[in-house]
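Give me C-alpha cells for this 307-residue protein.
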Amino acid sequence: MTVDKLTRNAVASPDGSVPPAPSAPLRQRGGARTRRRVSGWVVLITLSVVALLMIFPFWIALINGFKPAGEYIQSGPISIPTELDFSALVDFWRGVDFNRKLLNSVVISGSVALIAAALSLLSAFAIGIGKLRGRVWILAVFMVAFTIPQEALVYPLFVLTRDLGLYDTLTGIIIILAVLQSAFGTYMLSSVLGAFPKEVLEAARLDGASRRQILGRVVLPLTRPTLSVLVTFFFIWTWNDFFLPLILLPSAKNQTVSVSLGALSGQYTSDPTALAAASLAGILPALVFFLIFQRTLMRGVNLGAIK
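Here you go.
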C-alpha cells in the first residue's frame, strides 16, 4: 500500500468515504496568489519609503522656515518648533520684493505654457495628420532639439536677444522658452495625432470641413486631455527653470522666483531659517498649482493610457 493510500485511509470519514485529494493546479494557483500578494507588499513598502525620502526636504523647509533662529541653533534642523516665528519669511518677502518676482514667474510660466501648447498642437497637426514629407526626419530634429542642454544654447540666444532688443525683457524669455518647450510637445503630440482615427477625419472632410475646422472642431476637443497634461508640465518646468532666466534677465525687476532664491544663497548662508523660508516661498506656488490641476493631469494621463 502506498503512502498516498495510507494517508487517504487515515482521513477517511466514518461512513467509509474518502475525500478527494487536492489537485496540483489548485496548489499552484494558491502559491501564485501568495507570491503576488508578497510582491505587492514589497512594491508598496518600497514606494512608501521613496515617497518619504522625497517629502523629507519639504518637511525640513517647512519646520525650519517658521522656527526662531535661537531655537534652530539650540535644537537643530530636525526638531519641531515650539513656537511659530514668521520674521524670516517676512524679511525675505520684503527684502527681495517677492511680489514682483512672483508676478514675473506667473506671467512667464503661464504664457510659456499656453504658447508652447499651441505651437505643439499646430506643428503636430501638420506632421501627424497633414502627413508632411520627411516627417520621420522632422520628428528626429525635434527629438534632438529638446535633448540639447541649455548651456550649449545660451550664447547664441544671448546674441540673438541682444540684437533684436529683447535682452532683459519678459517677452524675450517667453518666446525662447516657449519655442524650446514646444519641441517636446510637438514630438509627443505627433505620435498621438499619427494614430488619430482616419474615419473621423474622412467624415469631417466629406461634410465639407476645412483643415482649420478639422483642427478646431475635431482634433482639439479630442486632444484636450493631452494638452492639459502638456500645459501643466510646461508651467512647472518653466517655473523651476533657473539657468536661462539667470542669463537673460539680469535686472532685479525682471527676475523670477528661482533666480531670486539662487541670488540669495550667498547672502543668507549664515541664516538657515531664512534659507528655509525662502525655499518654502519658492516651492509653495508651484505646489499649489499642481494640487489645483492634479485631477486634470491624472485624467489626461489615464485617458492617454486607455487610448
